[in-house]
Amino acid sequence: MILSRFVRTMPPALLPILRSDRQGEILALLLLSPTDEHSISDIQRRVGGPFSVVHREVTRLLGGGVLLERAVGRARIVRTNPDYPLLRALTEMIRAGYGPVPTLTNLLRSQRGVREAHIFGSWAARRAGTSGPPPHDIDVLVVGDAPQRDLRAIAMAAGKELGQEVNITRVDPVAWLDQTNSFVKTIRSRPMTTIVLDPDTEA
To answer: Which of 8, 72, 154, 184 has the fewest CB atoms inside 10 Å of its own CB, making it the most exposed?
Structure first.
């Protein structure tokens, strides 16, 4: 007699109707920049996780009509299907749940003086699987010497795009490495989501 055991995984705390956070991150990458095209390898590099998992999620989205694909040599290049009937509703849902990372990545990547960037607070806690109410704002830590006025402008632009308040706190690189700094110790002891500013760096 063969017994099958099914492991039931917990739904993501950010958007419980999805199957996984990886699914949400893939949808955010593609839906929030709908004209951009990505290979599956590029998607895997940006969102992280095993290639097999990313490949499976992308294949499901293609099968459901959410994405379109074309072949370039041996690579499969995918993008958002603009004719998908539920595109607007799905995009707004994904923007609310998983929009902070791609939105802040796009805004911070070209900003002078940003060495590192991390999301902390309630959003990062939900992303890490901690249950609780939906986050009402997004807390961002920037390590570097970017001008405060530029960071305020980025926070306003991100907040407008996400429909949530975005707060950016700047920390000096020396302070970020200081193990005795109480603020830094508190941030480091709690969930953080790193914003990958270098597209060639593994997520």
So the answer is: 8
